[in-house]
Design a protein that fits this description.
- By secondary structure, this protein is mostly helical.
- The protein has one domain.
- Helices cover 81% and strands 0% of the residues.
- It has 4 helices and no strands.
- It has helices at 2-22, 29-51, 56-78, 85-104.
- α1 runs antiparallel to α2, α1 packs parallel to α3 (56-78) and α3 (56-78) packs antiparallel against α4.
- The two termini are 13 Å apart.
Length: 108
């Protein structure tokens, strides 16, 4: 159950971060509301994951790493951001680290 809640926290955080870009410095109030609500929900979900006894290091690393990789992909695919070999390698390393944490386990 902890992994499903963590996945939800990652999805909500990705939506909030994407909305942060779209809010244009909080000048678009609708997107700004999505940012605030999304980050609040993401942290509440992450807190629930920790309450379910998942290791804080694993939970936070997976949450941050997966979120970073997905946001980087959204930036390239939908927001017109550039990608080069170094960025692609960095994203691959993040994904590899998340996979290794999952293989190593992360709950008590």
């Amino acid at each position: 159950m902890a992994w499903l809640i963590l996945a939800a926290a990652i999805i909500v955080e990705v939506v909030a971060t994407t909305a942060l870009k779209l809010s244009d410095g909080f000048s678009h109030k609708g997107w700004a509301l999505v940012v605030v609500a999304g980050y609040a929900a993401a942290f509440l979900l992450l807190a629930q994951v920790l309450k379910l006894q998942m290791d804080v290091g694993t939970a936070y690393a997976v949450w941050a790493g997966a979120g970073t990789a997905v946001i980087a992909a959204i930036g390239v695919l939908f927001l017109g951001e550039s990608i080069n070999l170094a960025k692609a390698a960095g994203i691959a390393l993040i994904i590899g680290g998340v996979v290794m944490l999952n293989l190593a386990g992360g709950t008590h």
